[in-house]
Amino acid sequence: MARRLSYSARYEHPAEKLYQAQMQRQYWDDLMEGFRELTPISNVEEFETGAGGMRVVLKQTLTRDMLPPIAQTVMMKDMVITRVESLDAFDATGTPGSYTASIPAGPGSLTGEQELFDTETGCTVRKTTEVKVYLPFVNGKLEQLMLVNLVDLFRGEAEFTADWVAKNLA
């Protein structure tokens, strides 16, 4: 059974500024540099922009000893997470996108949709995630663990993004 999470990050900046940030390779490189404090192997593998929007592939490696005990029971090697994020062409009424995260030989999947839109006080990025783990007996615990960690990730990325936009696009 899948578990779902809806998360909204609110910003004081207009949607066009956040979109402008995500259309820059430097934004993603700086994000991965920040991640290296927690996950030493964090890189931008691919980055594409064009009239149709943006697509980035991020790869992070968590060594097995960094994983929580319940995750160590199913992961016998380091966990390599490949994350793909995309945003369509900017639309002032709302810019849709998607994201996925995968782990080779991993016991589940993570997919999501995101939307960037203006608000009266700035903008919001709404992310709707679905997590599935295909292991009987521990699937619910692992799904819940993934969602809790995902909220922390989204929060940290929102803080990073707000700071990055303020410093680089003000």
Labels describing this entry:
single chain, 170 residues, alpha+beta, Alpha-D-Glucose-1,6-Bisphosphate, Chain A, domain 4, seven-stranded antiparallel β-sheet, 4 helices, 7 strands, 31% helix, DUF2505 domain-containing protein, DUF2505
What does this structure look like?
- The protein is α+β, with helices and mostly antiparallel strands and 170 residues long.
- The chain has one domain: Alpha-D-Glucose-1,6-Bisphosphate, Chain A, domain 4 (2-Layer Sandwich).
- It is 31% helix and 42% strand.
- The chain contains four helices and seven strands.
- The chain has a seven-stranded antiparallel beta sheet, with helices on one face.
- Strand 2 and strand 3 (53-62) form a beta hairpin.
- 18% of the residues are buried.
Secondary-structure content class: alpha+beta
What's the arrangement of strands in the largest beta sheet? Answer: 1-7-6-5-4-3-2
- Written as H for each helix and E for each strand, in order along the chain, the element string is EHHEEHEEEEH
CATH class descriptor:
Alpha Beta
What's the gyration radius in Å?
16 Å
Structure annotation, total helices = 4
CATH-level-2 architecture: 2-Layer Sandwich
Q: For the residues shown, what is the average pLDDT?
A: 91
How many domains would you count in the coordinates? 1
Instruction: Pick out the low-confidence regions.
Output: none
* Proportion of residues in extended strands: 35-45%
Q: What is the rounded distance between the termini?
A: 44 Å
The CATH fourth-level homologous superfamily:
START domain
Shape: globular
Major β-sheet annotation: 7 strands, antiparallel
